[in-house]
Amino acid sequence: MKPFADAELEALLAELESDRVERKQSLRGDATTTVREAVCAFANDMPGHGAPGVVFIGARDDGSPLAGFEVTDQLLRQLADIKTDGNIAPPPTLLVEKRHLAGADFAVVTVWPCDTPPARYKGRIHVRWGPRRGLASAQDERILNERRRHRDRPYDIQPLGDATLDEMDRLRFEQEYLPSLVARDVLAANDRSIEQKLAVTKMVVSDAEPVTFAACDSVTCVAESTVRMYVSWLMPVPVTMYVVSSDDVSDRPVTTALPSVVAPVCVLYCVVKRYSVFNACHGYCRANS
Fold first, then answer.
1. 179 and 280: one domain?
2. Which residues have CB under 8 Å from 123's CB, separation 6+?
3. Residue 158: inside a domain, yes or no?
4. Whether residue 128 sits in one domain with residue 12
5. Is residue 249 part of a domain?
6. How many helices (H) and strands (E) does the chain have?
7. What is the 3-state secondary structure (H, E, C) of 181-241?
8. Are 269 and 173 contained in the same domain?
């Protein structure tokens, strides 16, 4: 989360109103409501920009400054109250600033997209399409709900956008991890590329998009020590436990890395969830699909 530089804000101020820009001359009258609706819409980020939206207070529709406009402490407090007054749920992530842009002062509200959409203002879902703002349709709401479910997945199966294949220990993956999952004769007859193997084992998003998952960062891949267990829950479930300690990369049994009280809890968690990863005492307990 990084605030916009002056040059970036000036560029947004000079552009036409869009699904990322809202301008208001003041915070009087119904502007208190429309600004909150705009904040809610920016938090929902219906177009999926993944970038903040900005509300400029003290700007005309063409982006020029309003003559005689003054940014006061009271105005900034009113804008900051948008986050905590309880009208928008979940509370938006925003930044309220006084900024000097193009030779004039503006009150600037920067709103980051919500990780758990849809955001609601007084129980209603507001979205933007271009310069227009309005209530979400049933289809819009379904899209936002699906985004929330996607982002609510356990952290270990969410992709790391800045990770690369170079950060993974390919030798450990091919010589230790794969043979523990697949019979060696099957591997010998398999002509898949390394990217395809990583995708099949869910280490990356896909063979065309080699982005690693959170539970397969360089520390995990280098430091993993695997042991097989089977838990009865309608059918045997293969469970793998990993040591995730950068200080200990030995091949000792993983059970020695977990206290006797914690290990049963990890196993029980896997039985109930069947797909989750429980991180405790530097241990992962994963049910392999």
1. yes
2. none
3. no
4. yes
5. yes
6. 10, 13
7. HCCHHHHHCCCCCHHHHHHHCCCEEECCEEEEEHHHCHHHHHHCCCCEEEEEECEEEEEEE
8. yes
The more confident residue out of 228 and 85 is: 85
Could you tell me what percent of the chain has a pLDDT over 90? 47
What digits encode the pLDDT tens for the residues 43-67? 999 999 999 999 999 999 999 999 9
- Specify the higher pLDDT residue, 153 or 37: 37
Residue 174 shares a structural domain with residue 57 = no
pTM for this predicted structure: 0.59
What is the total residue count of the chain? 289
156: confidence class by pLDDT, cuts 50, 70, 90: low
**Separation of alpha carbons 143 and 139, rounded Å:** 6
Are both 72 and 173 inside the same structural domain?
A: no
Measuring CA to CA, which residue among 273, 267, 264 is closest to residue 285? 267
pLDDT computed for residue 91 by the predictor: 96
In a domain, 185, yes or no: yes
Could you give the CA distance from residue 253 to residue 226 in angstroms, rounded to a whole number? 8
* Residue 65's CATH number: 3.30.950
Q: How many CB atoms lie within 10 A of CB 186?
A: 11
